[in-house]
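Fig. S4 source data, part A: sequence.
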Amino acid sequence: MSPPQAPGLQQPFAARRRLFVELMSWMIGLGLVAGLVFPPFVVLLGVPESLAYKPSFYAACLGAGLTVGALNFLIACRVVRPRVKKLSQGMRNFRMALLEEEGQASMLGRGSERYHVPVDSADELGKAADAFNRLIDALVRARRTEDAVRDFSQTLASQLDLAPLCREALSVMLARSGAVGGALFVLQEGELQCAAAYGLSHAEDLARRSDLRKALTDLKARQVDSPVDVLLTGGPQVNPRELLLLPVESKGEPLGILVLASLTPFTPEIFRLLDFFRQSLKLALQNALSHERLGRIAAMDALTGCYNRRMGMERLGEEFSRARRGGEPLGLVMFDIDHFKPVNDTWGHLAGDRILVQTARTVQRVLREGDVLVRYGGEEFLILLPGTALPDVEQVAERVRQAVARMDITEEGPERITVSIGAGTTASLDEESPDALLHRVDEALYRAKAEGRNRVVLAGMEPVS
């Protein structure tokens, strides 16, 4: 069944028919006029009037004019009409392809050349055919761009986690732009972080480039020709021919910046495509960053800024399972602020809150990268120490105890505070569950309190002063 035709589809053909009817009328009319004026013209040349104005001579002149007009029309039809017909047929085919859903896929898959009409002259008809071919190419490019942007947007919309989102976005942009390397930087907590990178040596160092910082400040794209300080990987290290810096912003505020490196200059068509992609990336980054902020808010203790108990227990379960699978120890430290209730009773809960915040910040400074501080409840805290054996766990616990004991209370409150600490590892205690490990360390904490406070007690061992 033929697809429905849009209103006006037959208009080009009706216009073509009217054109040739008008052409025929003019040519035949011109021939008749020539036949009418020929007898008076030959009289001026000296032909006797009796001969020139004879009805038979007039009839012969009109017949000759009519014949010449008709022949001219037939010649025009033979020369011009096939070209006009090809042009109108090409328009019809292309329009039907746009109307048919399957035709669109075929058009995009096979290219626009199959809808071109021959350009066989340099006259107006040839120019019209060339303009039609260029229009088809532009429409196909626009449709491909539309499909690419839609697919890109759908891909990013399904991803809310920042790291996978950035990797996917960079992968698509590299493939679509023809770039051989690139990186995507995202602004988080005021710091420019490399969220994804491919094909660039030491991609994280790009964040220190002055032109990248300037592009992020004024939110204007930049092209850097032959950057000598950027190296490509994946073979002999070479410099890219061009580096493209594309800031991603929302309402005048920077979200991040895309860096693409190519061995050939980027074309204007690639620029337009990347600009469309940037709009989709902006929305996706906004959603991912908002999702991440909400996740952090849900995971963090509002007062101290460290993990809350719910998230801390999830991390303990994850790290415990990872330690059992990998055969590596997991250290656990639990500490409690000594005599904290009198602090609240004497100086008030605001003073107690300030001490909790200061204690958490002090402990955070002495921990290593990868260690996790958790507010377990009230004045109790947990520290998760992945991959840490018992001697190192004891050292970390002792550093925490000493750091808190040396801490100066910045506002009204006691002059000094201390903490009691219980500690242990999965290797030394060999417990079968994270709850059992936590219970053993909690027992060690209460032993530390019972034996005088301000000390570290290892679960299953004697207290250390």
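Fig. S4 source data, part B ends here. The radius of gyration is 42 Å.
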